[in-house]
Amino acid sequence: MKSTKLIGLFLPLTCLLWSGPSQRVAAQQRIDAARSSVRDGYLASASEDGSLREVIDKKYKKRYQEWKNEFLSTEIGRAQWEVYSHHPHLTLTITVVPGNSHGAGSGKYKWNAAGELIAATIVLGPEINEGFPSAVYYPVMNALRPYESSNLLNGNVLAATKLAHEIGHVMKISTTPETLYRLQMRLVPAYNKIFLSNGYDVNDTRLVEMSKQMGGNPVEIWEDREYWGEANAMLFLRDRVARESFHCKLFNRIKRTVEEYAKNYEARFTEIAKSQGVIYSCSWK
Ligand SMILES: [Zn+2]
Hints:
single chain
């Protein structure tokens, strides 16, 4: 386990980029507030069949529309939007709320009796067009940094990439059994409590047993989820920069970062690289 990743032990299981503990609580409150607003009916603008709900305050509408347009400028973005606009059982809510302004999160998952995911909420900060998360867990989003500073890609591309990352979380959770998700939510805090009190001994038999039960230690669970988010972010970028002269340079940067920090998860990124010749024709082989 890389020492740089130990901090992941104390991260929650929902994705909230760059959030500290107080911000995470605030983010949860914002999700609750957004839901209340939906009930009150003054912020909601629902799509036709209601399976994709955009709950956007009028002061954020212009920027949100720009982010959404950027996401929908790609084939993969349009395809994913279509899936959630006409999903048979999942209601996906997307909202913009202040607080963690450069970050985003997903959560409020609900399953039905048949084990199908029926609700999820993506919360976007009001300035997600700015701010680059660490390369350790976010090799795709972080790779955009040089292109924004050189004005080759604007902030809307970064915002749309963050949206794609969150949609990646929702996609992965929709294939995760509720029982496993609940077990992880219950065991991760218990694991962390022991870990903090046993001298950081991951070989503690209690921790080994808990890891077995929940399918990995908290770091492994966290990074697996984050890299699924990043895999979808990469799918979006694959389409978005395909015709840009610098696309090989950008994807080579992602490749190097994945090799450095996410070697165990390289396959899912390589799979995406192979799925379109334009990336595969770079040095990603
Ligand atoms: Zn995430």
